[in-house]
């Protein structure tokens, strides 16, 4: 599988831009978190885990979806808080077979960057993690916020999900 043209290929020796686009339509809002500090990440993680577990109906075979979604949300929210301006707003949405995460911050001057190759421990891999665990990832700006989004498939039939 090759990376989309707007992403640096895995192992690239330079950082690259994230594709600018709006997320797919048709999702219904589930829950929203407003984060003012890194210390609040544990509330986001726990809340997301509960919401996703409830919507997946306790199906053990779908546990990886909740784990992936919590990890992607945590990475994107951390990026928003470290590289953006507070508050960071995380929204979870869903449709019949997918979840959509949006993470907004108030820094309109910076753009999300996908990390190139670098030694372990130097950070910068949040967007790579999001890319690997998501169906699609992108970002856009409005007049007031910068939004990074990730679409995550449930790998479940529509009747598996509850609302």
From TrEMBL:
Keywords: Kinase, Serine/threonine-protein kinase, Transferase
InterPro entries documented for this protein: Anti-sigma-factor_SerPK (IPR050267), HATPase_C_sf (IPR036890), HATPase_dom (IPR003594)
Source species, domain of life: Bacteria
Molecular function GO terms recorded: protein serine/threonine kinase activity
Gene3D superfamilies: Histidine kinase-like ATPase, C-terminal domain
Domain Histidine kinase/HSP90-like ATPase: 64-149
Residue span of region Disordered: 1-24
Classification via PANTHER family: ANTI-SIGMA-F FACTOR RSBW, ANTI-SIGMA-F FACTOR RSBW-RELATED
Protein name from the UniProt record: Histidine kinase/HSP90-like ATPase domain-containing protein
Top-level taxonomy: Bacteria, Bacillati, Actinomycetota, Actinomycetes, Micrococcales
